[in-house]
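Worked Example 4.2. Consider the chain below.
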Amino acid sequence: MNTQNETPRIVVGIDGSSSSQAALRWAVRYAGLVGGTVEAVTAWEVPGSASWSAPAVDVTFDKEEAERQLVDEVRTVLGEDGSSLVTERLVHGHPADVLVDASEGADMLVVGSRGRGGFSRALLGSVSQQAALHAACPVTIVRPEVPVE
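Applying the procedure from the previous section yields the following structure tokens:
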């Protein structure tokens, strides 16, 4: 946690899902209320890199393109003005581990209730569940926004 003299740091996990987009909007609103900054974090991992096989190489992964996509997603969700309030970070590693690490020194970690993949019947995705269990700061789990008909 930050001391009283420091600006509150809000970390939000982004993965392109509607749930993470709702979490991003929530984090920016919350940061506005507490005078904080928002750090949008996306994790990337090479498939099979955690196994006991030969070193995994994903020749199709383009880190610069992934960083551009993250910036574009933040801009699409928040608009130009809102996106100027956010710092984006692309981090190599498993999403749950990356978010738990990013929670060190943060005042709040915000995640969506469901990310990409997983079982739709589950109440929480595995990443949000691991973040809630292991983060070094309070965690807010945001459900996707339901459009009003």
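Strands lie at 9-13, 37-44, 86-92, 108-112, 139-142. Confidence is low (pLDDT under 50) at residues 117-123. Compare this with Example 4.1 before moving on.
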